[in-house]
Amino acid sequence: MIRINLLPVREARKKAGLRKQGVLLGVAATCGVVIALGMHISIKSQISSQRAAIVVKKKELKALEETRKEVKRFQVEQEEIERKLDVITQIEKARSGPVRIMDDIAKSIPSRVWLRKLTAKKGKLNLSGLSLDPEIVADFASRLETSNMISGVQLQETSVTETEGLKLNRFTLKANYPYLKPTAAASAKKKRKGRRGRQRK
User: Fold this and answer.
1) Residue whose C-alpha is closest to residue 124's, from 79, 163, 179, 80
2) Smaller CB count within 10 Å for the chain: N or C?
């Protein structure tokens, strides 16, 4: 009986299988390295892109902050200009006030109303007089309200009085007119002048 030794063949096959596995493992490792390298490059590229976007956004935010500051500065300047214009308007009204107030009152008095007293002090106007009937007083108050210089007209008192045999309605009206209050600096300056005058005496 002939015997064939198969050990060399098995060893050869085993070695071939190990080589094949080694090659497969090497290919798999190479693919893993390539994939990992690709992912690393991709992630690094995304990070760089995000960083660049953050830098751009920071620049835009800084520009917007500067614009906001500029707008706020303009708003402050506008408010200051409006305040100054308001003061100028008040000065103009206060300067021409007495003449215009007297003119408006004279134009507003109905034919059957007689003023007996008129006082104006620190923006407060007081009028008192006589009329033939209370409806005319109400008409007088309505006319005064149409004036640009007089506001807040209020009928304070009405009563019936007899003068030379005639029954007349006595009335008192109060109203407001533009009055520019002196500033603290002006008041202090006025007080200093008063003290100097007393010291000289």
Assistant:
1) 179
2) N
